[in-house]
Design brief:
Elements: E1 8-9, E2 12-13, E3 21-24, E4 30-36, E5 47-53, H1 74-81, E6 92-96, H2 124-139, E7 142-152, H3 154-165, E8 172-176, H4 185-188, E9 192-196, H5 206-218, E10 224-226, H6 235-239, H7 252-257, E11 270-278, E12 281-288, E13 294-301, E14 307-316, E15 322-327, E16 336-340, E17 344-346, E18 354-356, E19 379-380, E20 386-389, E21 401-402, H8 404-407, E22 413-420, E23 428-438, E24 440-445, E25 448-453, H9 471-474, E26 478-481, E27 494-501, E28 509-520
Parallel strand pairs: 5-6, 5-7, 7-8, 8-9, 9-10, 20-21
Antiparallel strand pairs: 1-2, 3-4, 4-6, 11-12, 12-15, 13-14, 13-16, 17-28, 18-19, 18-22, 20-28, 22-27, 23-26, 23-28, 24-25, 24-27
Length: 523
């Protein structure tokens, strides 16, 4: 049974859409769809548009399942809403729903990509989806040079097919775990494409994705290609905009929204600076090249060589590409720079971990509260990284507090507490938890569960991780967006509590290292 409360399903708020809409063609064929408007939508402003093609599991007529992509596109939804990533990716999100008896492309998924001779005719649902796109463009203020298409699994096929059916329409595409017409490399070579496909996929063979990349390369094009060691999965990780970056260092959504039909948006650059004296202070006015819907931070070079943020950020919208600020006479002879993004800080920067390997369940219900339980006998460690290795290896440089004697052959679990206060006069606009972990964890913020990995919902005091986390992944920070939990932060007396778990008490290594990054400032 699927229960939907308050019109929200897996993070998708249906009240943000224009309604439960159905398109009908001249022959009476219908296709449900939803159009989501960005937060604080202004009809006088133009917005990019993202067309999303769902997978096979979300087919039907409920006009809801497709909008959350099977739970995989929550971050894409929030990004286009403007409620995460500081609102820099606000856009229309269009989500048509394919009926249960149809596919976006009528081709066997297990056969991967196809040739011109094998190419199916444009499907009824695909034809309707593209007709809906045309209607939306004609009705709403869509930025015509920033229309994007993406989809996963069956929708990955749909993404390639939409590029084929509407050449010159889309500025960029994100095809995930699908296939397309490998005879048409020349048709795709000038489109910005970031391809994703798990190398161990047994549902849609990866050879189809490889063939698409090869076809485009043969035609003289080049695409981004993420090929992780996963199966027919990992889509939520791809869309989270934190895990994968291209060779230029751009996260997925940053790359996507920087694409236009005329080519990538130009990198940020200062084009003019004016300095004047106002009320006894120095006023600096800056102008820069246009980079729509992006935040910038003014920073000053400190004596120790690091950069510090001024306590505000500058937001550019459309052609609004200038700002001014004042500095006191004490710091006039300083070096300033403008950096993209809101100022941020690691809230755990000055923390020393408190830790305990429990011998029974006596404090299991209270160990993660804001106030440490009386008589709990937690130890004070050093820094943030906790773990051990029986032989020094890749974890060794990351571990500051060693717990080998307490965990090995004794208990696969450990309780960790990171207590912190918030710097004064900051309003946080985004919050992310970065986790290096081997093998599993459950994290709590001020007693509220906020994130987990490889852990059962009700893990006990001696719980084991549900599976091993490979060392190659464990040393990379996995990012969990916690912006919805900002309201539970307090000015003083916060605690990030982490129940760390090894896959076995006999495991030869273990690692937990958190980062809690808060972005502050505002528009």
């Amino acid at each position: 049974m699927l229960l939907v409360f308050s019109g929200i399903l897996d993070g998708v708020d249906f009240s943000r859409s224009t309604g439960d809409l159905v398109y009908e063609d001249d022959e009476g064929n219908t296709l449900p769809y939803r159009l989501f408007l960005p937060e604080n939508y202004d009809e006088n402003d133009e917005y990019p548009l993202v067309l999303f093609f769902h997978g096979a599991g979300e087919r039907g007529r409920d006009n809801k399942s497709q909008a959350n992509g099977g739970g995989h596109i929550e971050n894409l939804f929030k990004a286009t809403q403007g409620t995460v990533f500081n609102g820099r990716y606000k856009a229309f999100l269009l989500t048509p729903q394919c009926p249960s008896n149809d596919q976006w492309v009528n081709w066997p998924w297990s056969r991967g990509s196809y040739t011109d001779i094998e190419e199916p005719e444009e499907g009824r649902s695909m034809h309707s989806a593209l007709a809906i796109l045309d209607q939306v463009i004609a009705t709403y203020p869509v930025a015509i040079d920033q229309i994007y298409v993406t989809g996963l699994s069956m929708g990955g096929f749909g993404t390639w097919d939409s590029l084929r059916r509407r050449p010159g329409k889309f500025a960029a595409a994100l095809p995930l775990s699908g296939g397309g017409n490998k005879s048409q490399g020349a048709s795709f070579k000038d489109v910005a494409i970031w391809l994703y496909h798990g190398s161990s996929d047994t549902v849609v063979p990866i050879r189809g994705a490889d063939e698409m990349e090869n076809a485009i390369a043969t035609a003289g094009g080049a695409i981004e290609y993420t090929r992780p060691n996963t199966g027919h999965s990992g889509w939520g990780t791809f869309y989270n905009n934190r895990t994968y970056r291209n060779a230029a260092g751009q996260p997925v959504l940053e790359w996507l929204f920087s694409q236009t039909l005329g080519g990538p948006l130009q990198p940020f650059a200062i084009t003019k600076m004016d300095v004047s004296q106002v009320d006894g202070e120095t006023e600096i006015a800056l102008r820069w090249n246009s980079r729509p819907r992006t935040n910038y931070v003014i920073q000053r070079l400190q004596d120790n060589g690091s950069w510090t943020d001024l306590p505000f950020a500058v937001k550019t919208l459309g052609d609004t590409t200038s700002t001014q600020f004042r500095i006191s006479s004490e710091i006039e002879n300083s070096i300033f720079r403008v950096k993209e993004g809101l100022p941020s800080a690691d809230l755990l920067e000055d923390c020393n971990v408190r830790w305990l390997v429990a011998s029974d369940n006596s404090i299991h219900d209270t160990w993660n509260a804001r106030v440490e339980p009386d008589g709990a006998k937690f130890f004070t460690g050093v820094g943030l990284g906790v773990g051990f290795e029986t032989r020094p290896d890749v974890f060794d440089p990351l571990i500051e507090t060693y717990v080998l004697d307490e965990m090995l052959n004794r208990n696969a679990s450990i309780y960790l507490r990171y207590e912190f206060n918030l710097p004064p006069d900051r309003e946080y606009t985004a919050l992310d938890l970065g986790m290096r972990y081997d093998d599993g964890f459950i994290a709590y913020l001020n007693g509220t569960k906020i994130a987990s990995g490889n852990a059962l919902e009700n893990s006990g005091w001696d719980a084991r991780a549900t599976r091993s986390h490979p060392d190659s992944k464990a040393i990379e920070f996995e990012i969990f967006n916690l912006s919805e939990f900002i309201p539970i932060l307090r000015s003083e007396g916060n605690v990030l509590a982490i129940h760390g778990m090894n896959s076995s008490p006999r495991g030869s290594d273990f690692l937990i290292e958190p980062r809690l990054i808060g972005e502050f400032g505002g528009s």
